[in-house]
Amino acid sequence: LHLARQFVMTSNHVHLTWQFDIEKVSETDSYAMELLLFASLMACKDIPERVLRLLVFSDAPAHLYSRCVTTLTSYTLVDVSESNEGYSFGIHPLVHSTLLERIMCEPQELRDKLVKMCECLFQ
Fold first, then answer.
1. Is the model's pTM score more than 0.90?
2. How far is CA 22 from the centre of its chain?
3. For residue 109, what are the CA distances in angstroms to 64, 104, 123?
4. Is pLDDT at 7 greater than 50 in this prediction?
5. With helix as H, strand as E and coil as C, how does the chain read?
6. Which of 65, 71, 86, 89 is the most buried (most CB within 10 A)?
7. How confident is the model at residue 111 (pLDDT cuts 50, 70, 90)?
């Protein structure tokens, strides 16, 4: 029982740390936050970079995407890995869960934009 309680407390501390980091990103880099929220709608792992780049940053300068990735990896909110098919994103399951909850609290305008980006995947 003691170990189970300790695990829950540790998990809560980790969860709170990630919430704090997500809030910092939200306050300092709206583009990185948008990228993170959109990625969270897709999956927890193996999110193709090319899809994120195409849907979130199609009209933006290349350096903006790089800056956002640097921001997100510096907070360890995402990890980037390389495979034969290119780069892909991964989001820790607890971060992913937190982001999905957060989306419901975002302004309607941003939620609508995220939905439109998802619709583009199926056209």
1. no
2. 9
3. 21, 12, 21
4. no
5. CHHHHHHHHHHHHHHHHHHHHHHHHHHHCHHHHHHHHHHHHHCCCCEEHHHHHHHHHCCCCHHHHHHHHHHHHHCCCCEEEEECCEEEEECCHHHHHHHHHHHCCCCHHHHHHHHHHHHHHCC
6. 89
7. confident
